Amino acid sequence: MANALIIVDVQNDFCEGGSLAVAGGAGVAAGISRLLASEPERWAHVVATKDYHVDPGAHFGDPPDFVESWPRHCVVGTTGSEFHPELDTGRIEAIFHKGEHAAAYSGFEGHADDGECLADWLRRHDVDRVDVVGIATDHCVRATALDAAREGFATTVLLELTAAVAPATTDVALRAMDGAGVTLHGQPVMRAA
User: Fold this and answer.
1) Could you tell me which residues come within 8 angstroms of residue 35 by beta carbon, excluding any fewer than 6 positions away?
2) Which residue out of 9, 13, 51, 131 is catalytically annotated?
3) What is the distance of C-alpha 105 from the center of its chain?
4) 74 among known catalytic residues
5) Which N-terminal residues, if any, form the signal peptide (predicted)?
């Protein structure tokens, strides 16, 4: 069996200067790249997810409520949907797009260009353990980690390589992940309150 790194939504719109920026996002991108370079044998496989919106309906709000609706972000064909330039994408074997026509937080809701879902891809590559990193700790990282555990993968979140939106939602996310048997390592990057 093998292990995999899942890089969640390290995209321009979620990093500083983006339309739905999370403080520390660019640092997370650079940190993931440093770790991949310094420990090239740590993971047998590396995959990534992307928010990839065409027309996600009520997921885009005007004005957004920042609970169920958000500013326009990660629209297909825009620079905001691209990976942050600090993220080294050389090791990424597959990208799973999510949220084209509806809200989608978990990478396990996404699919590769050929239509294969993340869980099937991991199983086809004999993966039984995953580490999750990326943006945001309290939203898409949380959802992806919970689904990974639900799918039966031994799941660890490397919190030092995640960026969080807010303390309150991050506390809820950490409790939920811990309660689901997800191993939590380190502390998320979070802007000062």
Assistant:
1) 42, 161
2) 9
3) 8
4) no
5) none
Active site includes 15? no
Which pLDDT belongs to residue 188? 84
Q: Is residue 73 part of a domain?
A: yes
Q: Is residue 37's pLDDT more than 70?
A: yes
The catalytically annotated residue of 50, 51, 74, 140 is 140
**Total number of domains in the chain:** 1
Gap between the Cα atoms of 188 and 121, Å rounded: 27
**Which CATH number belongs to the domain containing residue 79 in this structure?**
3.40.50.850
Instruction: Give the mean pLDDT of the chain.
Output: 95
In a domain, 70, yes or no: yes
Residue 98 binned pLDDT confidence (cut-offs 50, 70, 90): very high
Residue 62 lies in a domain: yes
Closest CA to 156 of 43, 71, 29: 43
- How far, in Å, CA of 25 to CA of 51, rounded? 15
Tell me if 39 is assigned to some domain: yes
What is the pLDDT, as a whole number, of residue 190? Answer: 72
Q: Does residue 104 contact residue 8 with C-beta atoms inside 8 Å?
A: no
pTM, entire model? 0.96
Single out the catalytic residue among 98, 131, 138, 147.
98
Establish whether 50 is a catalytic residue: no
